[in-house]
């Protein structure tokens, strides 16, 4: 079994096994939100929808591994 968490908190690399996580760019979220808020307060935002994508990072640690090979089913049990 593998486990992957979301958000990259400090404790995820403090416990064993270290938890694999999807890290979000929190600082980029904050600066983008601030920039958009300032534009809105200045009245610079139009009515068009703006799509903003910020990249996440997969931090592979000890909590994942390769899948085990499947066991062959027993055809007949007598």
What does this structure look like?
It is elongated, with a radius of gyration of 22 Å. The two termini are 32 Å apart. Strands 1-2-3 form a three-stranded mixed sheet, with no helix packed on it. It is an alpha+beta fold. It contains one helix and three strands. It has one domain.
How are the SSEs ordered, and which strands pair?
Elements: E1 4-6, E2 20-23, H1 26-42, E3 57-59
CA-based gyration radius = 22 Å
User: What distance separates the N and C termini?
Assistant: 32 Å
On the 0 to 100 scale, the average pLDDT is 84
Q: Helix fraction? A: 10-25%
Strand content: 5-15%
Low-confidence sequence ranges: none
Overall, the morphology is: elongated
Count of beta strands: 3
